[in-house]
Amino acid sequence: MDFWLRFFLNISFFGVCYFLIFAFRKGFYTTFVAAIVYFVSFLPVNIYSFFGYWPFPTGQHFILEKIEEYPDQIFNHLAIIYIISFISFVTPYLVRAISKESYKTSHIITKFHDARIDQVKVKIENNFVKKDLIYFLLLLISVFFTISFFRASSSTSIINSTYSQVMRSESYDSTAETFFFLTQILIIYILVLVGYGKQKNTLGIIKNICYLIVLIWILILDVLNGDRTSFGLILGLISLSLYFYKLKGSRSEISISPLKVFLFFPFIVLIAYLLGLIRIVSIKAIVQNPILIYNLAKEYLFFSLPSNGGLRQLIGQAVSKFEFINNPDSFIVLISHLKLLIPSFIRDLIWSSKDMNFFDTDFYIDYTPGGANIATLPYELFGYYGIFFTLVIFSFIILKLELGIMKENTYFPLITSLILISFLPRIAWYGYGYLMKFISLIPFIYFSLILLRKKV
């Protein structure tokens, strides 16, 4: 193991921790979520760097054998990606911090009672949303959720399913997943529209209905199907409450103080981890032998992490330098992603054959039963330079959205940021397929706000 590479990796780890603290304290919640869902998958690398062992469970014989066979090559590849990723994430913020414009903007962002912001708040708060529109959106949410509920409920539950069956997605319904995402997008959209207005009674009713839907979603659909489809929406709703606290203080019914979120967030992470454990051992096994499952949970702590499959994919990428691995052509994967920008009913007419479509999860499938890392595709296309420039652009766009929320007080940056947050876990876990789906929503967000005569 190269001493200097290990040294810079450890420095980068502490840099990521400081960056997360900085983002949360500044109220850059999209930045915070993006960084944490990306870097959490690299925790096994950090543990190996600090303590000298890989925290993979003993059942992962294949991965452990490859690590034993190529220890330095695998560590070096993962360490370089981690260091590059850290530099990429912080670069736009450093550039902004040293510019004179950033210094002026920081006063607007940090001083919530600045006269300019108060004036803009009054202007936005006087923008009423017609109740007919609110009721129509609420009706759509109810219809979409009902469809997804019955579709998901009719699919095979993982209570008696094996782990391999779950990983092969035998218990999932693609139609249900599509309507899930439509539901979460509309929930965020309607809460932002109503949250900016003064219709407190309407806001209270809408908020309670939306939260009830999310609660049913978590307790019935995610637990039974062993998925975490609601996790992104929960992060989006928490971030929405934090942004409204930042914009309006405690006056808004949606607002939640950062302290309350800080105390409550570990429970959300614990629930997400338990759902990951359920996918491995099934609910039935947990009920029948909780002590055994507790011991198993300690061993599978990092194996149950979201996007752990993406980390194993990067291990396969490191090994591919020394062994032949049959992968799809990276440019075909890129084209397949670009197709997702086109609505599915048009896409199916133009590209009738789905056999030519490949995505991030098709890389190094022998190393992971599912999942993909955000760094995988850029490296396949352009090496380490591809990772750097991709993440710099991604981080720069997030920063522009963050500044737009406070500096311009428009609807578009806030709605776009919150919907992005709801997609971020899926993007981090499964790669650019979900990013393309998110990008395809941006024109709808933009033009719908123009039709509603909202400031974009």
Please tell me about this protein's structure.
The longest helix has 32 residues, at 376-407. The chain has a domain at 125-295. It has 21 helices and no strands. The chain has helices at residues 3-26, 29-39, 43-51, 61-69, 71-97, 100-110, 115-125, 131-154, 163-167, 174-195, 200-225, 231-248, 258-281, 283-288, 290-299, 308-319, 330-339, 344-350, 376-407, 411-430, 432-451. Residues 106-127, 157-164 and 166-171 have low confidence and may be disordered. It has 456 residues and is mostly helical. Helix 8 packs parallel to helix 11 (200-225), helix 12 (231-248) packs antiparallel against helix 13 (258-281) and helix 19 (376-407) runs antiparallel to helix 20 (411-430).
The assigned structural class equals: mainly alpha
Number of strands: 0
Number of helices: 21
Oligomeric state of shown chains: single chain
Element string (H = helix, E = strand): HHHHHHHHHHHHHHHHHHHHH
Radius of gyration: 22 Å
Overall 3D form: globular
Fraction of helical residues: over 70%
Return residue spans where pLDDT drops below 50 for at least 5 consecutive residues: 106-127, 157-164, 166-171
- If you average the pLDDT, what whole number results? 76
Report the major sheet: none
Could you tell me how far the N terminus lies from the C terminus, measured between alpha carbons in angstroms?
Answer: 51 Å
Strand content: under 5%
